[in-house]
Amino acid sequence: MANIYDVAKAAGVSPATVSRVLNGARVTPDREARVRAACAELGFKPNRVARGLRRQSSDVLGLIIADIENPFFTALARGVEDVARTAALSVVLCNADDDPEKEAAYLDVALAEHMAGVIISPASMTETDVTQLIGKGIPVVAIDHSPESAQVDTVASDDERGAYAATSHLIDEGYRRIACITGPRESWAAVQRLRGFLRAHRESDPPRRRPAVKYADFRVRGGYRAMAELLDSANPPDAVMVTNNLMAAGALEAMYDRELRPPAIGVAAFGDAFWSHLVRPSLSSVHQPAYDIGRSAAELVLKRRGNPDLDPQTVVLPTRLEIRDSSRRPS
């Protein structure tokens, strides 16, 4: 007997796309036609009784993250899982790769399976659409910021304050040309961290104007390219604040390729990865409470399952600057 995976293979699409077609979600006409043709060819008929039972409720919590390679999300997932287990819930981890289309497919699966809840790090503030989940009574909790499609419970770290602290530290160390490597313009976290960086410049004595800013993709190669462009510019920085740890690794690699080392060029990063204190010189970093963010998000899901009419709430957890050798300016 054919199943959804057989249909997906015959149609040349993902199982999530088959699920979207069977549940009436939006897909391209071509994909819908291929799925329905494959269903007819294989004699596939959805088990509507089983689907109906699934839609009553499930014991699965969906965790949709932006980048599985980022250690932040590893710690966050552990926090989610530890709380979920207390409620006899399993956690399904979905890596959206900051891709709104891939994220939408995972959201459709969550809807089709009527998951117990969804915790999501939105791929896009404008494109991430959780309205169908909300409409079906599935609790949704966002990491960093609620998407524009619906106001939902949100858990975040105080990113602006953390970036402000890191930049102010570089200023206090005597660095004069401090640049920022930040994430995509549509990322809420990148926006908040850039705000902290710029506020520290405005509030310095005397105020500093028009610091260099490079936008990248929150990944190692993006950090490398951004740092290389800064170093090759007419007025290269003497310090840089990097808004996540993966880009910081790329920025350090770009420096090493030019035989440059911190703290001759000061470096501070957002996200205190496990390797931050292992590299030489050790990397000054803003610590995010990733595990606690995951725990808080899962607790909000459980709370909303018990009381779905609560007003959406936002939990903001503090950050902490860990000063190490990469930003201590030589005397």
Description:
The protein is of the alpha/beta class and 331 residues long. It folds into three domains: 46 residues, 434 Repressor (Amino-terminal Domain) (Orthogonal Bundle); 136 residues, Rossmann fold, CATH 3.40.50.2300; 138 residues, 3-Layer(aba) Sandwich (Rossmann fold), CATH 3.40.50. The protein has twelve helices and twelve strands. Strands 2-1-3-4-5-11 form a six-stranded parallel beta sheet, sandwiched between helices. Helix 1 packs across helix 2, helix 5 runs parallel beside helix 12 and helix 8 runs parallel beside helix 9. The termini are far apart. The mean pLDDT is 91. GO terms for molecular function: DNA binding. It comes from Phytohabitans maris. Pfam families: LacI, Peripla_BP_3. InterPro entries: HTH_LacI (IPR000843), LacI/GalR-like_sensor (IPR046335), Lambda_DNA-bd_dom_sf (IPR010982), Peripla_BP_I (IPR028082).
> Counting H and I runs of at least 4 residues, what is the number of helices?
12
Give the CATH level 1 class of the largest domain.
Alpha Beta
Helix content: 40-55%
What's the number of extended β-strand segments? 12
| CATH fold descriptor of the largest domain | Rossmann fold
Unreliable segments of 5+ consecutive residues: none
Provide the CATH architecture of the largest domain: 3-Layer(aba) Sandwich
Mean pLDDT across the residues is 91
End-to-end separation in angstroms reads 75 Å
Give helix and strand order, one letter per element, not per position: HHHHEHEHEHEEHEHEHEHEEHEE
Full CATH superfamily name of the largest domain = Response regulator
Q: Major sheet, described briefly?
A: 6 strands, parallel
Strand order of the largest sheet: 2-1-3-4-5-11
Number of domains: 3
InterPro entries: HTH_LacI, LacI/GalR-like_sensor, Lambda_DNA-bd_dom_sf, Peripla_BP_I
Protein name: LacI family DNA-binding transcriptional regulator
Keywords: DNA-binding, Repressor, Transcription, Transcription regulation
GO molecular function: DNA binding
